[in-house]
């Protein structure tokens, strides 16, 4: 399968009709939008960054900045595109050692206005940098290096599958392991989550960890917006935790992972934040199955319950596979001989990836144990 085949489809083509009312899922519209007339200027951004031209970057940010009245008049689609285009300049200035709002203080009320309009944080996120970023000649990039584009594509391909996962996880939370649909929904989640494995495989094959560590990572640093720090676009903001939440994390979490999610959730879409609020106090699929097996005892397990357990184990194996490969990649990017930062761009140490991998593996083992046979 070609990379184009994986990233060409999106919520515009995958989602149910009701999703089309959600402007943040209108990917084609957001990519096409250029409310600030930024195309010509941002085409020159990699050249500015190559020579660390802070003055040119500051002039560019000031030139693109709309008035607060103009920002307030934007629809959500244009506001998202505007934040996307201002955001690459914010990250570029910080990469070269300048707090962007120190250089262009008049940007503060505009960023706050765009944040209120979009119901998101007052800077760009991974969604702006990947899913809502145009492709081809209009693609917004910090470096212009083909590996940067490949990394954007690898993250971009995950977005539509996670959109579809949202409904599937909500549906799963309403079911019990004795329901025949429990296994069916889990299989759907597993197929959708498989995009994460495809994404990490493409990243490993086409993006050098040294390039990320030495060239790209610095553009994702946090910036100060009105006295509060906000992280830059980070792959950690791609919320695989939406799947964890329903499968095991809502009642089988870890203090460090829970704290990381509490800090990360604000970078998500409004509907995804609402999903977490609705389900964070629920009973996980792993706990439901564990209780059901305890009730049944050591006697023959009903076929529907065994099917539910097998389906859940398959999904957890997909997540385990992704996390093992992600951990390997992160260890290379943050190895002592190449790294420039101690923590990942999402604000967490590499050790947390190991913790979450272990938790995923432990839950898979717990689900497989009543079925007998070795854990893969």
From TrEMBL:
It comes from the Bacteria. It holds the Pfam family PrnB. SUPFAM superfamilies: Indolic compounds 2,3-dioxygenase-like. InterPro entries: PrnB, Trp/Indoleamine_2_3_dOase-like. This is Monodechloroaminopyrrolnitrin synthase PrnB.
């Amino acid at each position: 399968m070609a990379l184009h085949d994986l990233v060409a489809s999106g919520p515009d083509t995958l989602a149910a009709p009701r999703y089309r009312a959600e402007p943040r899922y209108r990917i084609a519209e957001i990519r096409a939008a250029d409310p600030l007339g930024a195309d010509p200027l941002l085409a020159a951004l990699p050249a500015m960054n190559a020579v660390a031209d802070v003055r040119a970057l500051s002039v560019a940010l000031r030139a693109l900045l709309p008035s607060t009245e103009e920002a307030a008049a934007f629809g959500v689609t244009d506001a998202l595109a505007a934040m996307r285009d201002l955001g690459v300049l914010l990250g570029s200035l910080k990469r070269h050692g300048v707090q962007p709002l120190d250089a262009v203080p008049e940007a503060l009320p505009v960023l706050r206005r765009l944040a209120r309009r979009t119901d998101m944080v007052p800077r760009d996120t991974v969604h702006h940098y990947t899913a809502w970023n145009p492709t081809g000649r209009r693609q917004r990039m910090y470096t212009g290096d083909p590996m940067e584009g490949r990394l954007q594509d690898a993250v971009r391909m995950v977005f539509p599958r996670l959109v579809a996962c949202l409904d599937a996880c909500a549906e799963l939370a309403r079911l019990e392991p004795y329901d025949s649909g429990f296994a069916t929904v889990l299989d759907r989640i597993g197929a959708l989550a498989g995009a994460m494995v495809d994404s990490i495989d493409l990243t490993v094959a086409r993006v050098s960890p040294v390039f990320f560590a030495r060239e790209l990572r610095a553009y994702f640093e946090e910036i100060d917006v009105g006295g509060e720090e906000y992280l830059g676009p980070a792959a950690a903001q791609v919320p695989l935790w939406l799947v964890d939440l329903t499968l095991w994390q809502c009642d089988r979490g870890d203090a460090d992972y829970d704290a990381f999610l509490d800090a990360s959730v604000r970078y998500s879409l409004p509907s995804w934040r609402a999903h977490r609020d609705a389900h964070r106090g629920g009973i996980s699929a792993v706990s439901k199955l564990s209780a059901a097996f305890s009730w049944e005892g050591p006697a023959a397990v009903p076929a529907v319950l065994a099917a539910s357990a097998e389906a859940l184990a398959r999904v957890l194996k997909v997540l385990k596979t992704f996390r093992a490969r992600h951990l390997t990649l992160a260890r290379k990017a943050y190895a002592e001989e190449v790294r420039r930062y101690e923590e990942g761009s999402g604000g967490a140490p590499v050790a947390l990836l190991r913790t979450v991998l272990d938790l995923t593996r432990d839950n898979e083992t717990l689900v497989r144990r009543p079925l007998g046979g070795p854990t893969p």
